[in-house]
Amino acid sequence: MDAIGRRGFLVRTGLVLGATVLANAYPHAFADQESQSPQSRFKNWDDLRAQFPLSPQLIHLAAFFLASHPTPVREAIERHRAGLDADPIGYWQEQEEKQEARVLRAAADYLSVEPIDIALTDSTTMGLGLLYGGLALRKGQEILTTIHDHYSTEISLRLRAERTGGAVRQIALYRSLRTVSRDEIVDSLRKGVTPATRIVAVTWVHSSTGLKLPIQEMAQAIQSINRSRGEQDRIIFCVDGVHALGVEDFGLRELGCDFLIAGTHKWMFGPRGTGLVWGHPKAWPIAQATIPTFNTQAYELWMKNGSSKDLPQSIYMTPGGFHSFEHRWALDEAFTFHQTIGKSNVTQRIYELNQQLKQGLAAMPHVTLHTPLSQDLSAGIVCFEAAGMTPRQIVTKLRQRKIVGSVTPYATQYARLAPSLLNSPQDIETTLEEIRNLRSS
Asked: 41: pLDDT confidence band, cut at 50, 70 and 90?
C-alpha cells in the first residue's frame, strides 16, 4: 500500500484525526463534552422530548418507523446542506473524508468495535441486500433463515437464490407466542442447523409481533457447533438489528454475531436515509461487494492499476456514488445524542414504558396481547388485537383520538404501538384509556 493510500485508509478510520483537528473542524460537538452529563444536557425527559419538532397534539407511538430529527442532528444536516449549496465541490473535498471518519468513529464507540469494521449504507434494506446478495458460498452450502423475518430479509435471500441457485431454508423458532421461551428458540435453531448450513440469518426484534430473540444465547449455540468445523464451513451468524439498535444496551463484542445490519433512522434518531453494516474481521472475507466504493485509497489504487488485496473488505461494502451527504455526515450526532443520554438510561426508559403498556393491555378482557410480557423476550414494539375490530380499524380509531400507531405489514396483521424516548407515562395511560373505550366504539 503506497503512502497516499495508507493515509487514506487512516483518515477513513479516524486514526490520524487528532482531537485538535476534529475540534477545529467540528467545535460544538466537543465543547465541554466530558462535563456534559445527561443531567446537564437534558434536565428531564420532557426536556429531551423538546429536542424534537414533533406535533405536540399527537401521542407518537410509531416513531420507530422513521425518525424525527432531534436538534443536534437537524442543525448538523442544515450546516452541511448550506455548505454544499454554497460550494458543492469545495465543501465536499474539504469535508468528505473527515466527516465520514467522524461518523465511523462515533458508530464504533457506540457499538464498542473498530471503525474499519463498519460499512455505511442508506438503510437496513440496502444493507441486507448488499450483504446477503454478495455472500460467498461453496457448492452444497446453504443459508438458514426463519419464517418470522421481514420482507427485506426474505426477498434479499430469495433474489440471491434465484440469481445464484443457492439454497435458502426457513425454519420456525417457536410454536406459539403464548408459550415461547428463550430455551425453545435456541433449541429450535440448534436443531435447524445441518452440516450444509453456512449462514444463519435472523432478525433480533420481530416487527411482526414484538418478539425479541436471545441473540447472545443463539450465538453461543452457533459457536459450540463451530468448534467441530473447519474455517471454510464455520457458520456465519447474521442479524438484522434495526429494532434493537437504539433500544438495547449492548456491545457487539459481547453479542457474538458475525454481522449486524441496521438502519440508523429509526430508534437511533439518525438522519433519514442512513444505515450501517458491521462485520467481525474474521467474517468480512465472505462478503463480496456488488456496488463500487468511492473510498479514497481504493479509487487511487484503481487509477494506478494497483492491487487492492490489502484493503479491508468493509471498505468495499460501503457503496460509492453520490449520497445525501448532509444526512450521512450528520449521523455522528445521533450516536452522540444517545451516548449523552446514556445507553442504559435509554434501555431502562423504553422498558418501563413498554411494561406499562403491555401490563395495561394484558388486563383488558377485550384485548389479546401478542408481544411477550417479559422484557427478556421483547424490546420496544407491542402488538395486540381488540375483539370485534380489525387492526386497521384500531389504528384508525386511535389516530382519530390523536394517538399514532401502525399496522404490522405482514400476512398476519396486528395493531402495533411502540413507546420510545419521545413518550411519557401519561402518554401511555392516555393510550390505554382510549383502548379500553374501544369496546363501545
From this structure: low
